[in-house]
């Protein structure tokens, strides 16, 4: 039986607020001395910050792309890029070899291709922006193999080859070169491992099941050696993790040291008002005094659920969960909807949209001083609203921050499942 979100005494909230200090607190003196987690000159969206130990100074908002090629056309993708980069100053773009989603053989690679055709028309902008992409993690039998071949034009739709998607050196090299070709660029600023090659609970699952462990996972050091080869060739300039665990972060950092490459500079994990697991499990590992991995939150609006557009049973035409009701449906389970309704009430009381409240809350976290939130939109008004949430002056009151924590304690991570 599913239980509703239960109210807890307010006494539980204050200790949490003391532990989860917001960015209203100044950076520590140790961070200032080391030059870590500090912003450069600029305000709002244009106030850049250093990504991990890299040389990248990225904006607090990163343009996500996973709808391009499915919900968005090539022209719409280019319009988003023009607006975000040229008009609003966003300098960070995130994509992946498997995009768009839901992933399918007939669309695989289109997102990177659309980014590539924009870069071909805007070559003067390439050195002004940072591009991040991802190599797919373990899949036992995948058409991703076909999308990595030159003979198929680096699109899976043009080939019939299938096989396991892995993080072995050959797969990583093929995937990287295919991404470079689709994006029409000679280098990738941030190359990420989309999800682990080994078994881990992911995409909503929370319980580690030993029965799913497989001993053939590619060793951490072998993966790092493949990354080293890409770094040495100049094909990538830094690397990062995604959908990773504290164990994985520690192992990759140790393996990178043994291989002689820099540690990963970022971690792209799910993080939102309805999934705050990062705070408990990864914030310590990623702190600048430890491994210094910048957080790149994905699905900060819980697949659009935290815009409020699905409340009261609404099914907006063209919306992701209207088209694919079973894709990422965890964002709309009863406990999640109950929490979102309460967050919506807080946003109303604060005089802002639920979208703005959700994104401004992420931006208020102290560990986002060197992070960048990945936003995504299918319509230009949605894109504008998301970027606006990172402008100077968009802040949440102390009362609202405490109320958000109270909802969280009542209904902790409602989007996750056993």
TrEMBL record:
Lineage, top ranks: Eukaryota, Sar, Alveolata, Colpodellida, Vitrellaceae
UniProt feature, compositional bias: Polar residues: 21-32
Pfam families: Aldo_ket_red
Coiled coil: none
Name the UniProt record assigns to this protein: NADP-dependent oxidoreductase domain-containing protein
GO terms of molecular function: oxidoreductase activity
Gene3D superfamilies: NADP-dependent oxidoreductase domain
Region spans: Disordered: 19-40
Superkingdom of the source species: Eukaryota
Residue span(s) of domain NADP-dependent oxidoreductase: 61-407
Organism of derivation: Vitrella brassicaformis (strain CCMP3155)
